[in-house]
Amino acid sequence: MKYKKDAALSEREKKIQEIKKALISQKEILLSKAENTRSAMPNNNNLTEIGDQASVEIDVNFTLRLKGRERQLLKKIDDALDKIEQGTYGKCEACGKEIDIKRLEVRPVTNMCIECKIEQEEEEKLKDR
Questions:
Q1: In the chain, helix, strand, coil percent, each to 5?
Q2: Do 31 and 74 contact (CB within 8 A), yes or no?
Q3: Could you read off the pLDDT of 24-65 as tens digits, one per residue?
Q4: What topology is assigned to 2-128 in CATH?
Q5: How far is CA 103 from CA 40, 64, 91, 92, in A?
Q6: Is the distance from CB of 112 to CB of 99 less than 8 angstroms?
Q7: HSE, side-chain direction, 13 A CA sphere, residue 7
Q8: Structure pTM?
Q9: How many CB atoms lie within 10 A of CB 42?
Q10: Residue 34: which of 87, 75, 71 has the closest Cα?
């Protein structure tokens, strides 16, 4: 019986290492996109028309909002990578149980099991009423 449990743990660990590689790759892509966006940001100093300046500013603000979301994702990726290194990855922060590996594969930055996440979202909906 112990052998079966050890085999399951090693299979979970293999999956976690695959997730780690995917997280590192996703982080590299996000950082690369951020650098490309930063270097491609328009300079409105050369624009004389107020309408052109406003249009560029709207585009810049929209791009920065998108980058804000990517910054949040980068933080979550870093947190997940830290947890992998510490050996605490895949534990629900609400109830402490192991998060199903399939959930981690689909949403590798998650920090809650599906049951706790559903409960949290339901509580948020009640607060918003």
A1: 80, 0, 20
A2: yes
A3: 999 999 888 877 665 555 555 555 666 666 665 665 555 556
A4: Four Helix Bundle (Hemerythrin (Met), subunit A) (1.20.120)
A5: 36, 30, 12, 11
A6: yes
A7: 4
A8: 0.71
A9: 14
A10: 71
- Check if the beta carbon of residue 79 is closer than 8 Å to that of residue 85: no
Cα distances (angstroms) measured from residue 10 to each of 21, 30, 42, 67, 68: 17, 30, 50, 37, 37
C-alpha–C-alpha distance, residues 52 and 44, integer Å: 8
The pLDDT tens digits for 68-111 are 788 899 999 999 999 999 999 999 999 999 999 999 999 999 99
The residues that bridge with 91 in the sheet, in sequence order, are 98
Residue type for 47, please? L
Would you tell me the crossing angle of helices 50-86 and 2-40 to the nearest 10 degrees?
160
User: Tokens 């406003």 belong to which residue?
Assistant: 54
Angstrom distance (rounded) from CA 2 to CA 105:
26
